[in-house]
Automatic annotation (TrEMBL):
<dbReference type="Pfam" id="PF00106">
    <property type="entry name" value="adh_short"/>
</dbReference>
<dbReference type="InterPro" id="IPR002347">
    <property type="entry name" value="SDR_fam"/>
</dbReference>
<dbReference type="GO" id="GO:0016491">
    <property type="term" value="F:oxidoreductase activity"/>
</dbReference>
<dbReference type="InterPro" id="IPR036291">
    <property type="entry name" value="NAD(P)-bd_dom_sf"/>
</dbReference>
<dbReference type="InterPro" id="IPR020904">
    <property type="entry name" value="Sc_DH/Rdtase_CS"/>
</dbReference>
<protein>
    <submittedName>
        <fullName>3-hydroxyacyl-CoA dehydrogenase</fullName>
    </submittedName>
</protein>
<comment type="similarity">
    <text>Belongs to the short-chain dehydrogenases/reductases (SDR) family.</text>
</comment>
<keyword id="KW-0560">Oxidoreductase</keyword>
Length: 260
């Protein structure tokens, strides 16, 4: 797909980190970008910076997602691009033993459900609501109507201690890529998934220099955290290359995560 001012895009989680870098890269190409995020202050400021539109939205809410798509489409028209970067963590062991008393506890089920609701169902919710709009568009060359990029994680394949919920949510995003691509093939809509490794997002950088240095040392090459602009570059490559479809691609410097 050619990226220019005739194309509209929606980026969930677009106020910071990977989503912000992708939204900025799309805007540089002239694309009209709508930012979906919970962070109103950051989102509105960034949207103004790239001449985009900000929509305050929790992707776990059907009503908020519907309202956000209505607002985005009123401002820019029907999007041909959706990039899903919204997501949360939620670390906890399946069973934990207190060091002082030996008391046992299990993973809080409400936390597990919340991670699944945001990361998995929130992603799929955005996919289906965007895709049904894309399908109504007139096709471009070779019948193309739209492109969707989802964000999983290397945790989908190398889940660490305490990542049962997060890994389950991200592995499911990987697992649904091919069937969704097959579902949408007759509508001319492509979908791909990126599995980022350890990236220098604002949240990661709050961990401190020692943690960041230790994580960087785990990466085979280059020995550093990934940059958000590198994620954005891959997302744009997937969008612009019309033969890229139904794929799950790791972007991780060759890392394979250890148990801890």
């Amino acid at each position: 797909m050619k990226l220019n001012s005739s194309v509209a895009a929606v980026v969930t989680g677009g106020a910071s980190g990977l989503g912000r870098a992708t939204a900025a890269a799309l805007a540089e190409k002239g694309v009209k970008v709508a930012i979906f995020d919970l962070n109103v202050e950051e989102g509105e400021a960034f949207a103004a910076e790239i001449s985009g539109t900000f929509c305050a939205v929790n992707v776990a809410s059907d009503e908020q997602v519907d309202a956000a798509f209505r607002k985005a489409r009123k401002a820019h028209g029907q999007e041909r691009i959706l990039v899903n970067c919204a997501g949360i963590g939620g670390p906890a062991k399946t069973v934990s033993r207190a060091r002082d008393t030996g008391a046992l506890s299990h993973f809080p089920l409400d936390l597990f459900e919340r991670v699944i609701q945001v990361n998995l169902i929130g992603t799929f919710r955005s996919v289906v609501k965007s895709a049904v709009g894309m399908a109504a568009l007139d096709p471009l060359e070779e019948g193309h109507r739209g492109v969707i990029i989802n964000t999983a994680s290397v945790a989908a394949e190398d889940g660490q201690v305490g990542q049962a919920a997060y890994t389950a949510s991200k592995a499911a995003i990987v697992g649904m890529t091919l069937p969704v691509a097959r579902d949408l093939m007759s509508e001319g809509i492509r979908i791909n998934t990126i599995l980022p490794g350890i990236f220098s997002t604002p949240l990661m950088m709050t961990a401190g220099d020692k943690v960041v240095d230790a994580l960087s040392a785990m990466v085979p090459f280059p020995k550093r955290l990934g940059r958000p602009d590198e994620y954005a570059a891959l997302a744009l490559a997937m969008i612009e290359n019309d033969y890229f479809n139904g794929e799950d691609v790791r972007l991780d410097g060759g890392i394979r995560m250890a148990p801890r």
